[in-house]
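Pair request: fold both.
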Amino acid sequence: MKPVFQYVVLLLFILIQIASAGIPRKASYFPQLVDHDDENDHRLWSLWSQRFYSLGEHFKGPGSPIFLILGGEGAIEPSTGILYPFIANDLAVSFNAFILQPEHRFYGESQPISKEEITRARANGLPDPRIKLLSPDQAIRDALRLLQFVSNRLGCSSDRFSSKYCPVIAVGGSYPAFLAAMARTAYPHMVDMAYAASPPMKFYAQTIETGDEYYEHITEQTEQAFPGCAQAVQTTLQGAVERLVELQTLDETLFGACGNTLPAYINSTQTLVDEIVMMVGYTFANFNMAYYPPSNKTQMAHSCQTFMNEQVTDPLSRLENFFRYAFTKNNNATCFDMSQQLPTGEYATISAGDWSGVGAGSSGESWDFQTCTRCVERINMAGFLPKRNWSMDWLNEHCQRRFNVHPTPYELVEKWHFDDLVAAGASHILFTNGLVDGWSVAGIKSNLSDTQVAINFENGAHHSDLSYYKGLHDDATDDVKQGRTRIRALLAQWLHELPGGSVVYKN
């Protein structure tokens, strides 16, 4: 937490930056509320600094729209800046729009409370304060409070019928896509429409049927792209598991990990096997999300080549080669530190709340917490991975030990009713899905109404439409290019239909 005088300086600082072209941005900071539900939490000394980024060089003043990009489950460094080039380099130009992008609370530099406060609460037998503070709703309200401040500074009117009204388009990919859709659904008086790319709606609505869908889809897409790969992964893992069970060993060097880096909680062969399979699973999941444009030069392609290499017959050696590529390709190390796969915090484990992977470090801890509370995802190890069923009992045990919390899987859907968005009265939400992406199994892939529209990309991966964009040198697949044309036209139509209806669209 920063001293009071720094917040006063922040309040006087003009938060809008108009810098040179490019997605990397200089960070700004906004004095944010710790708890939006606490009426006593509006005092100056209880504020914290939320990091955010903005891009205003295309903005033509009051009456032009604002793209509100929701941050998600990771830090956003200045070297990254604005997350989505399709927004920054295309839509913002086409609509003369301003871009505002807050970092999600409890990720990166955006920390409402200190680690010491969390530790102290647990030591004193008190509930973890993140139960109240680390929620999708708190994150959305952070963004809307910042939006209101910046809109006022831009000279935008709050009157939707005014020519100076600045329409707001919430945008996000993956979990932030869910946030964008819920910002429009729950706060329609502040958000005019949403562009939600690859949102895992059915996971958070708890309407996934078996839990096998995610890794089965990744298996099918991997096999379709690289015939023989799925069988090679399955055979390798089966052989590696049999070998480790036969040896009854906890020697991490057998599969490429550095000696003395085995996490201390791994004290049985079965736990070791489970964590090896988890690492293979979430690494393939990451490579599946990034498999765009599809080619033989991708991480997915290299991984399949590793598993299908007939010159390496020993399954543990194949695993070693795979992990070396996945975890050390950027530093040329000869082994990987297995402990670096852990998130921070007490009782951290590789198998955590999200079986597609929570990530490492402090961001991994925050996402582990979120998937231990409201963002519950039922994902089994399936497909080319040895079968291992996720269960609520397993999650309860993990979350109780890790954070002393119990999951509340139905809290979000009971709050916002997104299991039936038509009945919830939602409108003007665009859902996009890359059909190669494992998360597409939980997406909304057909139109729900005239103003709840779905666009699918046969060759698309995880929010490829937002993230992969090269302007005049764009080598995106035709389905994504055509989809972007539809996206531009649809947003232009919705902006025109607003009461003001004066937004200029440069086709």
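--- second member of the pair ---
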Amino acid sequence: MAARRTSRFSTSYRSADARSATSTPTFKAPVSLAKRLLFPNLPHGADLPSLLAADDPELNAELYDFIALALRGFVTPWWMKLTRHDKEFLPEVTRVLAVFLRSVEARLASADLPSFVFRDVPAIVSQHYADYRNACAKVGTSYATGGSSTLPQIFHQLQPHMAVSPDGHWNETYIRQAVEHVMKSCLPPADWEAETERTIVREILAKVILGSVFSRLTQPWYLQKLILDLLGPPPDDRLEVKPCISMFKHYLKFLKPPDLPSRPTSRRRLSFQSIVVFFLSAVQIISGLCLTAIALSQKALYTIRAINSSSTSPVTVPHHDNLARLSIDMMAEILTMRSRASSAAMLSLVELSAGFCRPFTGRALPYILYNQIINVARITKIVVQSKKSLFPDGYPAESPPDPTPEEQIVLRKRLEARLMTLLPSMPAALLLGHDAASRGKTVSNAIAPLSSSECNVHLLILLFDAVLLALFPELGVVSGGMAAYTEGEIDDPHLIGYPSVETS
């Protein structure tokens, strides 16, 4: 009897434990949007597949998150109206996008990016500044069709382009056809023949990404705000005091002997204590300056050794072209350095120094580009910032209203004031002008060529063409006038950046 009660009690105790174990809630980690939309069949806890050859987990997650937000915001609304049960369409679009991105990454690895950054981009920017100033000089003269042509129309005559209208509006069909040719070069034949997925990927690239970027980067106020954000807040002169100078002033007050009421004479003698304090403070200041110079020299020697030791790698192969020359010419054109004697002399000295250091700069500039500018951390930051600006709350953001004309004037004045504080007084007098008025005029003239949205369209389209030709040279035209694109029959006769040509 007692055994039955004991067994019944133990059975009920075990059943209570089982119920309590089953009733304990198990918390699972939340599933990301990329897993729910792009990989619905992926096991829980499994990592997302690598999107790029550079397998960085943070960059991989941010890129997948960006793709998921773009598909949810621009594809899912109309696709759900057609069918609610198809769960394979978005993963298939993601697979096509992954193949496309890997192909673009391989093109980037094999492209000559130093020549593009330090040769092509400075040449395009310098030409834009020169043509804008020439167009401004022709406004209201007989060169402007009797004075009736506007600034965008005159600028278009200096830089005619098939993708830009005379009024300064870019053609969406040109961007769409460019993306179409790029996809044809990147995708395998099986994915290229899938017209639905290909069209969706093309519209995401041409409309969502490039369309949003182009519409913003052509606005002068947006460029000015972007430059202000890159420069950061101005330094506060009241708070930023050099440590050595502040220390010297602190110890300098000990040179003043204390007031002696019993000795009314006007002459004051230096005490031995004041002389010792002054000597020790001077030694400390000199030693601090020497330590700073040693640290800078060691850092420079380390950088030089790193550049020379990596000279055999493909990213730092010495260039035969003088990469620094066009960048110097661009800065001279922006700051109108050739119009002033002091800045022209400084420009000649810099050009002469760059010519002597040409073998070293041919290795140093690619090293800086690949190690300081183009790296995984910076690309990840760009993707995060793009995601925040395009999808602030997880969905496509409405275009904010443009600033009023008064706010745009204030924004430009802020930029001019910030640029005036970049250089100390002596270098600013040599490069920008001898007085404040001339320096302000130089800074204003440097911002003016970017103050026309219609003219900025030409600059943006030319930079877009330069990027395409750097990554996909088969889309261009060789010097003989024949198309270098030989992959079968060309669907669109309009090649990138050039008028239509006939191929035999």
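Observation on the second member. The two ends are 105 Å apart (CA to CA).
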